[in-house]
User: Fold this.
Amino acid sequence: MSTPTYSPGLEGVVAGETAICTVEGGLSYRGYGVGDLSEHCSFDEVAYLLLHGELPTAAQLQQFHTRVAAARRLPPPLKHLLGELPKWTTPLDALRTAVSTLGHFDQDAADNSHDANLRKAERLLAQIPVVIADHYRASKGLPEVPARQDLSHAANFLYMLRGTEATATEVKAMDVSLILYAEHEFNASTFAARVIVSTLSDLHSGITGAIGALKGPLHGGANEKVMDILFATGGPENAEAWTRAALARKERIMGFGHRVYKAGDVRAGILKTYARAAAPAAGAEKWEETADIMERVMAAEKNMYPNLDWPAGRLYHAMKLEIPLYTPIFAMSRITGWAAHVIEQLDNNRLIRPRALYKGPAARAVKAISDRG
Ligand code: CMC
Assistant:
């Protein structure tokens, strides 16, 4: 057998084909640039695009909205479970458990046909924001706020979380962040979902695994670290010295760097405008100034640039959302990309089973236990 080629972390390895998204020449979903989508479309239209392959007509969007809005509810046993989880359960862990639990209640759970997977994907798209909002409110001892069928994905989420309607500016900012988080080719969580369903497992299992992969701070968990880092600097006066000292200690500054984008992440530039615009009302200009200083130091010292999590953490903070909700919000958007990939994988499946380069001991014989000294 020939020696397989090996790239640590699979860097640069093409591990499959997809028609959903490319990072070549700027990020695009099914051929549409994310800048164009953020400017001209709602997240709901982008969700339809990712799941169904084309941007919707007005009638298709209306029908999609009706189906998704009608599914914005949870089975009572899951509501009960969310209220009973230990108080230290993080919102993302609760979401992972909830998606797994939702599989028990979905009548299509074991059906891997294209149409059944689309139905399940639309239901999860509807249910995930409800899980996040219900768990959040239960953890604060607040009564749940029933979903509104007339609101968009972003507007309904903010409404359920807070119990009051968000402003149009807040909804637009949240919507753009969801569009930018929706899909990103073979990132770790999406690849995890594809590996899981390539065994002919099911969509809920794939999404549960994807949420587990998203959690880590090298992936989706990074957006929950951004404000901690900014707070740790103390503010603009100390930002440069703090960043240089952290780099000297070989610490990673979460929200910077990317496996694929070495010259900058187009999504970060788009969302920075929204983080910047939201800051004054929240009295958060200081953190925008701090972020600018850190960006300059990271570029000069490490030739490293912000990724999407850097402005997303700041935007959500300026919207007065609590930090442990940030990665669940990422998941509330990425469910569209994950599900599109699960469907694409299962529509043309081949088991994903790579090889490992063996680094262990050479072949040897088992000694009797009395001879093992
Ligand atoms: N701050 C400081 N140093 C860094 C950073 C960073 N954010 N990222 C990488 N480095 C250094 C790293 O320490 C290593 O240095 P050395 O060669 O001296 O050991 C070098 O750069 C290469 O790092 P790597 O981990 O081999 O590079 P990678 O291509 O695997 O890294 C990454 C990609 C995203 C894991 C990494 O840049 C990172 O850890 N960033 C911080 C976490 C983060 O923001 N993640 C979000 C990613 S994008 C959106 C998402 O998925 O949520």
